[in-house]
Design brief:
By secondary structure, the chain is of the alpha+beta class. It has 10 helices and 28 strands. It has helices spanning 129-134, 299-306, 325-329, 337-352, 368-379, 409-412, 418-427, 429-432, 456-467, 488-506, and strands spanning 2-3, 8-12, 28-33, 42-46, 53-60, 66-73, 79-85, 88-91, 98-104, 107-112, 124-128, 142-145, 151-158, 163-169, 175-181, 184-189, 197-203, 209-215, 222-227, 232-238, 248-256, 262-270, 281-284, 311-315, 361-366, 386-390, 442-447, 473-477. The relative contact order is 0.07.
């Protein structure tokens, strides 16, 4: 829902039983006046049952302009943006792959995930809202910022005067402000720390005051107060340290994947680490849905792994958004093997540098990262001695039939299409697991009440391993949804099980 003035709401919901998309989301938007029952709401926008879903929002800027928009997500990555006009909703002439980011100086802000109008995928662009209302099909786009090949836009916010962009360079953050004058945008850096994850977490339309979050693997999350006008900022509050980071350092390396692509990764390790291949190492990645894995402080990893002598590695493999849409799209559908090759390349690079060895190397990932773990377990059993498979997809021939799975066809491919099914069958962990290879003993973690990825994936994989006489460990929490924990106590139990498993497998 979204407020449309003080006495009106725009609501997208299951208005009648079963009135949702095939993926389980709402696709009908209605306007509800204050005091009305839901049954009296008036329909203002409708998508299709075959869409992923539809929603509504109201954009505001610091000059008092407002704009009602409807977003129809036809697939996970292709969408239509419509604006409400006196003559009804009208579709904007934007590319199919775009994301609306806000309103500033009556300019509609959006990122593009494909090349369009002379701009490269990943750019932040604006169009005039007044023009959009007059002639929504014919727009004049203006470039705000075009990230370079090793850059990405990780967030966009607006203050009274400026557009604020979290602009990352080689997976390390920074914030720039952009001002609109004379029909063009100009940008300048805001004075915030480098070599960290830096993101705007709050900005207000009444002023140019901002809050930014700064964090790294060894630095607790810190809140900075800034002024977008003066571009100055200062630290105001930090979470307490939860482990001793003084004995550790972070380095960034690159591995070369099978097709020659350079894959960056971070290594957090003791300063006195010996390069003898004997360091217990945990390698983590996600690799999907244009989700970027950036440096971040984890009290749990620090206390239960780093303080005990472990090495932590974060791999920025393709499928994520670390270098913009192209980095993500390089691993879509039939190209997905590139993601799995990237991950294996990082492991091989760690071994070649003598940071670790297969005896001491463990891997962990959840959800789409759980699929990654399943693939790596089956494709490269020789590279690891521990595999933590969290809330995973594993049966890639039926994933689209379970819960929200139908919405991910644009990411993985459609098992009902023969040409896409063949590839999915070739990489699906459930289908490719077989007797013969010496697999490490994996640890499957799932939840009975996971409403995102069905627990049937983990259950079936465990059952197949059991039928083949293969060793495995399995934990299914009965609560907690996709996090496999419903409260802090359950989260602590799950984490303790995972790190105890890793400790026993990788440490003496």
């Amino acid at each position: 829902m979204a407020w449309d003035g003080a006495d009106s709401l725009l609501v997208a919901r299951e208005w009648n039983p079963g009135e949702v998309t095939e993926s389980g989301y709402a696709y009908i938007v209605k306007r509800l006046k204050r005091g009305q029952p839901l049954a009296a709401a008036t329909e203002v926008f409708r998508g299709e049952k075959t869409d992923v879903g539809a929603s509504a929002g109201v954009l505001h800027d610091g000059d008092g302009h407002t704009l009602v928009v409807f977003v129809r997500n036809r697939t996970f990555y292709e969408s239509e943006t419509w604006v409400e006009t006196p003559a009804g909703a009208k579709r904007l002439g934007l590319p199919e792959k775009h994301t609306v980011q806000g309103l500033s100086k009556n300019q509609i802000l959006f990122t593009i995930e494909e090349d369009w109008a002379g701009f490269k995928a990943g750019a932040l662009v604006s169009v005039d809202a007044a023009e959009a209302l007059r002639d929504p099909a014919n727009l004049t786009p203006r470039l705000i910022v075009q990230p370079g090949p090793r850059q990405s836009i990780e967030g966009v916010a607006t203050s009274k005067t400026y557009v604020l962009v979290d602009l990352y360079e080689n997976v390390q953050g920074g914030v720039r402000r952009y001002a609109f004058a004379g029909g063009a945008w100009t940008g300048e850096d805001i004075a915030l720390p480098k070599a960290s994850s830096v993101d705007i977490v709050a900005a207000e339309l009444e002023s140019d005051v901002i809050f930014a979050s700064v964090t790294s693997f060894l630095t607790p999350t810190t809140l900075w107060l800034g002024d977008a006008g003066t571009r100055a900022a200062a630290e105001v509050k930090a979470l307490p340290a939860k482990f001793d980071a003084s004995t550790h350092v972070t380095e960034q390396f690159e591995a070369t994947s099978k097709d020659g692509t350079k894959i960056p990764y971070f290594v957090v390790h003791p300063k006195a680490m010996t390069l003898d291949g004997n360091n217990p190492t945990l390698l983590y990645a996600y690799g999907g849905f244009q989700v970027s894995m950036t440096p971040g402080y984890s009290a749990t990893t620090g206390k239960l792994w780093l303080e005990n002598g472990g090495v932590y590695v974060l791999a920025n493999i393709r499928g994520g958004g670390e270098f913009g849409p192209a980095w993500h799209q390089a691993g879509l559908k039939q190209n997905r093997q590139r993601i799995y090759d990237d991950f294996a390349a990082v492991a091989e690079d760690l071994i070649a540098r003598k940071i670790t060895s297969p005896r001491r190397l463990g891997i962990q990932g959840g959800s789409n990262g759980g699929l990654l773990m399943g693939v790596e377990l089956v494709q490269h059993p020789e590279l690891w001695n521990a595999v933590v498979v969290q809330v995973p997809l594993l049966d890639m021939l039926r994933y689209h039939k379970l819960l929200a799975g139908a919405s991910w066809v644009a990411e993985y491919g459609d098992p009902d299409k023969p040409e896409e099914r063949a590839f999915l069958e070739a990489i699906s962990p459930y289908q490719t697991l077989k007797a013969g290879p010496k697999y490490p003993e994996p640890f499957f973690v799932t939840s009975t009440k996971d409403d995102r990825v069905h627990p049937g994936h983990a259950r079936k994989m465990a059952a197949k391993m059991e039928s083949l006489g293969l060793p495995f460990l399995y934990y299914e929490n009965i609560d907690g949804g996709h996090s496999a924990a419903a409260n802090l106590q359950e989260a602590a139990r799950r984490a303790s099980l995972e790190y105890m498993y890793l400790t026993r497998k990788l440490m003496d």
